Amino acid sequence: MKITPSARVLSMLGEIDFDEWQCVAELVDNPFDDFLDVLRSGVEWPDGFTVSVTLPSSPKGVLEVRDTGRGMSYDRLARAVRAGWSGNDMHDKLGLFGMGFNISTARLGRRTRVLTTRAGDTEWIGVEIDLDQIKDDFEAKDITEPKTNPSHHGTRIIVDRLQPVRAEWLRRNGALLRNTLGSVYSWILTEHPFELYVGGTQVKPVRHCRWGDDRYVLYNGKERVPAYIPIDEKLQDGIACRDCGEWQIGSGEVCSVCGSGNLATRERRIHGWLGVQRYLDKTEYGIDFLRNGRKILRWDKQLFTWNNPDGVAGNEEPEYPVELAHQGGRLIGEIHLDHVPVTYQKDAFEYGDRSWLTAVELLRGVAPLQPQRANKLGYPENESPLALLFKGFRRNDAGLRYLVPGDGNKPIHADTRDWGRKFRAGVSEFQTDEHWWQAVLRHEEIKKRGKEAKTAASVPTQPDEQAVLGALGLPADIPASGAAQPETGSKAASTVPTQAAVAVKERTETRSERLARYESVASPHAYLSRSFGHPELGYVKVRTLLLKPDERLLDDNGLGVPVLLDQRSGNELTALVDPEHAAFQRFGADYADLLLVELAAVLKVRARSDWSPSQLVAAIRAKSLQDSALDGTTVGAEARDLLTEIRERVAEVLDRSGGDYATAYGHLSDEEKIATEEAMIAAGRVGLVGRLGLDSGFVHHAPALALVRLVEAMPASFMDGAVFRGPYAGVSSPSGKALSLARVTGCLADVATLGTFAGEATAPQLRRARLSIALLRDELAGEE
C-alpha cells in the first residue's frame, strides 16, 4: 500500500509536538467522526458507539484503539493512512487535517498496524506501517486477519515498539488520561450515546461544577446579575472551502487560498454559556472553547486580560481575579466556535482570524472589564456577558452578596473545593448546588445572630431600680441591690416599708430564642436538606440541622424530642435533630425515618389527606429520597467504581515503590491467582498472563477480596497517605497499628464482597455496604 506523504506534511511533521494524551485523542477523533456521520444519516445502529483504548502494561507493551464504527474499504483505508490526505470536511469533523493519525502514531511507537472490517466482509484487512522498514518507495505491508463473525465491523489501531518515555507515561497515568479525555470530550460524551473506555474503565464526562440556572446576586442592592448566562449568537452565514477550511472573502467560485472549487455555505454561530463555579481555585477557572464538540482550550483565561485596540503597552495584567487573586477565580464558561479555525495541534485557535476576534468582542466587549479603568480610558460601560459576570462576582466575600459560602465570619474556600471534588466523584448530595446554597444561607443567619447579640449586649439588661422605686412613689434614695446597706436598726432602714421590696423576676427564654440558640450550635445535614413531599400532598423545602452532643432538644413543654420542626415562611421548614436522643443512640433509628414522620404530619394537614401515617411516610420517601433506595445493581456499581479507583492507586504505589511485584503477587492465594488469570483471559489480556508477578497488571484483574489480603499483608506500602490516609508507620503501639488498619480493611472487605455478590445481597447487607462505601471513600488519601 502506497502511503507517500504530501509535500506540505513533510515540512511540518518534525515541528508538531503532541503530548501523550493528544496522541491518544487523535486516534479517538476519527471513530467519533464516524459515529457522528452514522447519527446524521439516521440509520439504526444496534451495536452501539464504543471506542476502547488498551494501555501498555509494561515498557514493551502495546497501545490499541478499537471502535465499533462502520469500518473502511481498502481504498478508503489507503487514503486514511496516507500522511497529508485530507478526506475530512474541515468544518464538521474532529479529525481536522487527515494527518493526526500519522503524527500521533509516529510519536508513540515505531510500528503501527491498522485493521478494519465492515459488516458482511469476510476478513479484517489492514496495513502495517513499520518506520524501521519503509524505504524511499513508501510501500507499507498489507495484512489480513480471519474474521469469526461476518457481522462484526469496526477498526483497530495497534501501536507497538513504543517510545520508552511515552510507554511509561501511558502505563502509569491511566486515571489522569481518563480525566483529561473526560474533560476534552465532555460535551460529546454527554450529548451523544458514545462510550469511551481507557484501560478497561469507562471515561466519564468531566462536567463543570457551576451554580444553578436560577441563582443570582444583587449588584448595588438592585441590579440582578445571574450566575449563569446562556450565549447563542447567530452570525451571518459565510462561504468556506471544504478542502482547506478557509473562509472566503467575496463570492468567487474557487477558494482564494488553495484554488479548490469545493465551496459551501456554512453557519457561523457562537453558542454556549458563561457562569460562576461553586468554588474558587487557583487553576480550575476560565473558559472552555470547543470546536465540533471537542474542547480546544480548557480553563482558558485570556479573555480576562484587556488588549488595548490602540496597541498601547501596559495592558498585560489580567483584570480578573484582582481583589483576592491569591485565592483563585471562579468565572467559567463553555463556548462553541465551530466556525473558527484552529491550529494543527488542536490546542489553540487562530487568534488572528477575524472569526476569533468577533467572538472575543461578543463575549467580553471592547472596553476593560473594570468600570473605573474603562471610565478613565474614555470607554462607555462594558455591557458584555463577561463584564456583567465580572461586575456581580468580582469579589469573593462570604454571603449572599457574592454567592460565596461562609462560616458566619469568613469564606470557607477549602470546604467548597472539597465539595467540588465530591461533585466530580459523583456523590449524589453534591450534584446540585443546594449544599453550597445552604452554606451561604447559614453564613447569613450566623452573621445576623451575631449582630443581634452585639445589639443586645449594648442594651442594659438590669432595670434601673431607683427609677422603678420612683415610679412606684417610693423614696428614690433606697440603695440598689448589691449596694452597701445601712446598719440594722438605723433610721434609714426603718423608713423602708417591707412591702416595698422589689423582686425582679428572672426572664424566661422564648421559643424563638430557644430555637435560635439551637441553630447557633448546630451543623447542617446536607443529605437531608432538600425538598420533601409528594404530588398528592405538595412539597416543603427543609433545612436539616444536627445539634451538638452536649445540647438537648426540647419541645415547648420542656420534653426531650428526637426531631423538632420549625416553620419559617411559606413552604420552608427547619428541622432540628438531636443525635444523642435515645431513639438514635439506643434503638438505632435513622434520622430520615423520624424526620419523615414529622413531615408526614405537616403535609397530611396541609393536603387534608386521608392517607394513613405509614402510607404518608412511604410515599414521601419514595418521591424525595429515591437515591437512598437499596438496589443491588446501583449499590454494586458504586462499590465497583470505588474498587476500580483503589486498584489504580494500589498499582501506582507498586510501580512507584520500585516494583516488588513478585512479593505482592505472592500474597494472593492459589485460588485467587487462578481467578486472576481467568479474568485476564476473559478481558482479552492474554499477553499479560505470562507477566504475572512481573508488573502491576495483576492488580486490575485480581478478585476484589484479594485487595483486602494485599492491604493486610503490606500495610506500610498503602497506608500513611499512599492509598489510604490512615497512619501506620508512625504509630508506636501494635494495637494502634491494628486499629488504624482495621478501619480500612473492614470497610474494604464489605465493599469488595458487595462488588462481587451484589445481586445476592439482602437489604441489611446493602445498608451496611453503602455505609462502608462512604466510610472507605473518606479513608482514601486526598489529592495533595
Can you give a write-up of this model?
The structure is a single chain. The radius of gyration is 34 Å and the shape is globular. Helix 17 crosses helix 18, helix 19 crosses helix 25 and helix 25 packs across helix 26. About 5% of the residues have low confidence. 37% of the residues lie in helices and 18% in strands. The strands form four sheets. It has an eight-stranded mixed β-sheet with strand order 5-4-3-6-2-1-7-8. A five-stranded mixed β-sheet has the order 11-12-15-13-14. Strands 16, 17, 18, 19 and 20 form a five-stranded mixed β-sheet that branches. The protein is α+β, with helices and mostly antiparallel strands and 784 residues long.
Keyword list:
alpha+beta
Query: Which spans have pLDDT < 50 for at least 5 consecutive residues?
Result: 6-12, 84-88, 478-505
Oligomer: single chain
How are the strands ordered across the major sheet? 5-4-3-6-2-1-7-8
Quote the average pLDDT. Answer: 83
General form:
globular
**Which strand-content bin applies to the residues?**
15-25%
Distance between the termini: 51 Å
What structural category do the secondary elements indicate? alpha+beta
Give the helix proportion (percent range).
25-40%
* Radius of gyration over C-alpha positions, nearest whole angstrom: 34 Å
Instruction: Report the count of strand segments.
Output: 20
Q: Please, how many helices?
A: 26
Largest sheet descriptor:
8 strands, mixed
